[in-house]
């Protein structure tokens, strides 16, 4: 019986043949990319590392790690480090959370495509344009800043603004400051003797009514008086007396106070006159502070305490759409059978979201968080444009401090390079985490 034939060994193609070409050809095609990578990435990193070891005068004086010591001892850089920590903790977390909420909402609402378009639209705007937009949004004047226009509108809805902010009594008059911004007469009032309550400190053109003041008529069964702007156009007139051309102050609240208690109240009429009952005789007249409080001007969004949260809000407005799109893409891969099975088992929507949707989306959420964390470490444009000069140091971040140290008046590229190296070291862990995660997913 003949022995079975042994198949001849199959020759394995070389690696170059597997790739479909020779190795040297692959190197030739990769060379332009490698040159660009070296010129735009590797060379700047090495140059910054070397430059960070020298002083302010280029490469003349070697200072070793002295620039790194300056980085961790200078107030401006320490403020930038603190703000970067706030950015890394707050901005990616809030942006990812909003992106998750928006992504889930797009599956529950009609016109989901239009909703996604509106949320994602800020991504089409450059950081420069977004910074200019929010610099106007956060303007302190309610006439310019949208944010303060809304805040002032809501405030004035529940707390009516004073009609005469800044008004005050004459220094030589009977009205004196009585604490808390109110003014009270030193003498008491009587029936039949009109009370005079002259005020100054207001431009005549700012008086809304523009009605001439009238001297109160004596009454035998009431206490009468007049509140007016004691200023005659063109000068002249007698202080403490209603003169022709002087304007009435209508809507002023007057309180009659006896032994610390308010016994009667009145409001001045269009011509400035008011009437109190006879029970007010013997009382002192008080003009409450609510008549003169300055108009509510809104919130100082770009002040020292709120400038960083305000800029983070602008960043979230821009990047929430990015997070929504990535999370929505991951949400389409979630098995609907699991969600329906949980609902059949009695789980409510919050339990389905918290115990099934979020755990299944964890890989996508991590990708978004890490990507945004890398991004916020490099934030520069928004801070530089939105923060005014008076509070720019309060909103300082490392990327901005790098620019200010190197080119913004500091002129010390050694310290700037040290900050650049520090930024690279802060970004590296997130980059390595992403690389390991990509490799782990590829092995699956």
From TrEMBL:
Q: Is Membrane among this UniProt entry's keywords?
A: yes
Answer whether the UniProt record assigns the keyword Signal to this protein: no
The UniProt entry lists membrane topology as: Multi-pass membrane protein
Primary location: membrane
The organism's superkingdom is given as: Bacteria
What PROSITE patterns does this protein's entry cite? ABC_TM1 (PS50928)
Which keywords label this protein? Cell membrane, Membrane, Transmembrane, Transmembrane helix, Transport
- What InterPro entries does the database record attribute to this sequence? MetI-like (IPR000515), MetI-like_sf (IPR035906), UgpAE/MalFG_permease (IPR050809)
Concerning Pfam families, the annotation shows:
BPD_transp_1
List the GO biological process terms. Answer: transmembrane transport
Location in the cell reads:
Cell membrane
**Where is the chain membrane-spanning?**
24-46, 85-105, 117-138, 314-335, 356-377, 414-435
Q: Which GO terms describe its cellular component?
A: plasma membrane
| Residues annotated as domain ABC transmembrane type-1 | 81-434
The Swiss-Prot or TrEMBL record describes its family as follows:
Belongs to the binding-protein-dependent transport system permease family.
Q: What is the protein name given in its UniProt record?
A: Sugar ABC transporter permease
| Gene source species | Peterkaempfera bronchialis
């Amino acid at each position: 019986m003949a022995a079975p034939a042994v198949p001849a060994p199959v020759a394995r193609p070389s690696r170059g043949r597997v790739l479909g070409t020779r190795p040297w050809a692959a190197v030739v095609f990769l060379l332009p990319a490698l040159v660009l990578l070296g010129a735009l990435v590797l060379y700047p990193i090495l140059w910054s590392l070397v430059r960070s070891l020298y002083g302010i005068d280029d490469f003349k004086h070697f200072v070793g790690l002295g620039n790194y010591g300056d980085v961790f001892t200078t107030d401006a850089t320490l403020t930038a480090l603190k703000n970067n920590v706030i950015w890394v903790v707050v901005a990616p977390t809030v942006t990812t959370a909003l992106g998750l909420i928006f992504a889930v909402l797009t599956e529950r609402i009609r016109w989901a495509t239009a909703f996604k378009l509106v949320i994602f639209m800020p991504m089409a705007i450059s950081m420069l344009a977004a910074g200019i937009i929010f610099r106007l949004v956060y303007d302190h004047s309610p006439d310019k800043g949208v944010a303060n226009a809304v805040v002032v509108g809501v405030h004035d809805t529940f707390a009516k603004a004073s009609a005469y902010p800044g008004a005050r009594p004459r220094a030589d008059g009977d009205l004196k400051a009585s604490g808390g911004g109110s003014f009270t007469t030193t003498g008491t009032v009587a029936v039949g003797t009109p009370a005079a309550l002259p005020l100054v400190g207001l431009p005549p053109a700012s008086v809304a009514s523009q009605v001439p003041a009238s001297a109160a008529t004596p009454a035998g069964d009431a206490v009468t008086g007049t509140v007016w702007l004691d200023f005659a156009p063109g000068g002249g007139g007698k202080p403490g007396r209603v003169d022709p051309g002087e304007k009435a102050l209508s809507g002023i609240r007057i309180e009659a106070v006896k032994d610390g208690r308010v016994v009667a109240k009145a409001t001045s009429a269009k011509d400035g006159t008011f009437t109190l009952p006879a029970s007010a005789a013997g009382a002192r007249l008080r003009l409450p502070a609510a008549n003169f409080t300055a108009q509510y001007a809104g919130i100082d969004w770009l002040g020292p305490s709120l400038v960083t949260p305000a800029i983070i809000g602008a960043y979230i407005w821009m990047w929430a759409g990015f997070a929504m799109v990535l999370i929505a893409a991951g949400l389409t891969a979630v098995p609907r059978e699991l969600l329906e099975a949980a609902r059949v088992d009695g789980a409510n929507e919050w339990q389905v979201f918290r115990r099934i949707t979020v755990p299944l989306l964890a890989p996508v959420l991590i990708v978004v968080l890490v990507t945004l964390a890398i991004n916020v470490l490099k934030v520069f444009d928004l801070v530089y444009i939105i923060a005014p000069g008076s509070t720019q140091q309060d909103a300082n971040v490392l990327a901005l401090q790098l620019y200010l140290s190197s080119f913004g008046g500091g002129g010390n590229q050694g310290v700037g390079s040290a900050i650049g190296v520090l930024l690279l070291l802060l970004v590296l862990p997130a980059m390595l985490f992403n690389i390991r995660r990509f490799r782990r997913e590829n092995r699956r």
